[in-house]
Amino acid sequence: MAVGAVVLREGKILLVKRAKAPQKDTWAIPGGSVKLGETLQAAAERETREETGLEIEAKAPFHTFDLIEKDAQGKILFHYVIVDLHADYRSGNIQPADDVSDAGWFGPEEIQNIKTSASTRGLLRKLAFLK
Q1: How far apart, in whole angstroms, are the C-alpha atoms of residue 76 and residue 23?
Q2: How would residue 130 be classed by pLDDT, with cut points 50, 70 and 90?
Q3: What's the pLDDT tens digit per position in 104-119?
Q4: Which domains does the chain have, with CATH numbers?
Q5: CA torsion 34→96→26→129, rounded to 10°?
């Protein structure tokens, strides 16, 4: 099980560039695995803090999907059930760390020119950041 944090601020969304598999070198919302005994909200807050240095307050679930990544022979490498939660920005300045190579705030125009996964594009369409 994994979570993502959908953090909007001043008409922009927080995205991170993944430095590791799955989805290496693609932009996505911050997030990661839920630890045993951790709530979805606590996991989204922790993962966002670890990846970006930002403090957020995670809210209700917004979007749920499966992420299944296979190798060239069709063998399943990863299978995550991901729950994305709305989240409010609280404080901090972006400082990419942990398993991301970059992070930033993106408006709808900027998103058109970055590499995202199909699942991230689906979420961005749901939020009207992509057509």
Answers
A1: 14
A2: confident
A3: 999 999 998 899 988 8
A4: 2-126 (3.90.79.10)
A5: 90
